[in-house]
Amino acid sequence: MSAEELLQMDLDKVFPIIEKLNKEETAALITQIRSTAKTSYKDIDKFYLLISQLESIKAIAIEEKRLKDLHLVYGLGLFLFSSVLGYVIFSQRKIIQSLQQYLDK
C-alpha cells in the first residue's frame, strides 16, 4: 500500500491498516509521505521532527506515570508481605511459648 492511497482513505479505514504494519513498512511509508508532502510544503522535515519529538516527550511522560504507579503497587505489596510475615512470626512465637508452658506443667 502506498502513502498516496493511505492519505486518500478515511481515517477509520486507515488505522486498522496502520496497526498491522511492521517497522520497515512504517519507515517506508513515513519516507513516502514526507517526500509527497515536501512538494507542497518545503519545511515538512522541521514539522515532522517537531511532531516526532513532541510525541516522544508525551510517550515518556505517560511511561513515567505508569512506572510511578508500578512503584506504588510494589511498595504496597512489600508492605503487605512484611505485615503478613511479621504476623506469622509473632503468632509462631506466641504458640511456641504457650507450648513450652504447657510442656513445663
Helix and strand topology:
Blueprint: H1 3-8, H2 11-19, H3 23-38, H4 44-104
Briefly characterize the structure.
By secondary structure, this protein is an all-alpha fold. It contains 4 helices and no strands. Helix content is 88%, strand content 0%.
- The overall strand count is 0
Helix content: over 70%
The biggest sheet amounts to: none
Proportion of beta-strand residues: under 5%
- Number of alpha- plus pi-helical segments: 4
What Rg, in angstroms, do the CA atoms define? 30 Å
**What is the succession of H and E elements?**
HHHH
Give the class from helix and strand content and strand pairing.
Answer: mainly alpha
Note poorly predicted spans: none
| CA distance, first residue to last residue | 88 Å
Form type: rod-shaped
Mean pLDDT: 90
What does this structure look like?
The chain is an all-alpha fold and 105 residues long. The chain is built from four helices and no strands. The longest helix has 61 residues, at 44-104. The model has no long low-confidence stretch (mean pLDDT 90). The chain is rod-shaped, with a radius of gyration of 30 Å.
